[in-house]
Amino acid sequence: MNALRWGSGIPLAAFLVFMGSQKFTTPNPVFSYIAEQSGMAIFEPTIRLLVGVSELAAAALILTGLFLGMARGLGGVLSLGVIGGAIVFHLSPWLGVNAPMAYDEAGAYVTSPMLFVMALVFFAFSAVQVFAERDHVPILRDHS
């Protein structure tokens, strides 16, 4: 079980730090695109910053949790929620599987399915993390 914890926890935390830190740069093409498509300006920058904070908090819980099981489990649950939300948006008409990743020289969006694939992979890592720590997460603990 330790190999599962470390094997899913370290790459998941690294991914969350990488993706979360990108949310603090000026406009993110994904959130700008969702704001444009949905007509809801709250996505850029408000939701973008909340997602970034959530990703960094999940990473911190997972890394702290390498020594404290409950923190790691809660970090897994938080990352499952954040990445699950990303998958939902990728499957929505507001974003799509081919998400904008950057802007070209003319300011148009450059799209790719890479973010969707990464979300699926790290959603699985989050699920493994939650499974490995199920005894340390109060809502998942067997209370019998």
Topology:
Elements: H1 2-22, H2 29-38, H3 46-64, H4 69-90, E1 99-103, E2 109-112, H5 114-132
Antiparallel strand pairs: 1-2
Helix pairs in contact: 1-3, 1-5, 3-4, 4-5
Question: In words, what does this structure look like?
Answer:
The protein is mainly alpha-helical. The protein has one domain (2-136). The protein is built from 5 helices and 2 strands. It is elongated.
Features:
single chain; 144 residues; mainly alpha; two-stranded antiparallel sheet; 6% strand
Give a count of the beta strands, DSSP E runs of length 2 or more: 2
- Profile the largest sheet: 2 strands, antiparallel
User: Tell me, what's the shape?
Assistant: elongated
Count the DSSP helices. Answer: 5
**Between the first and last Cα atoms, what is the distance in angstroms?**
22 Å
Summarize the structure in short:
With 144 residues, this protein is mostly helical.
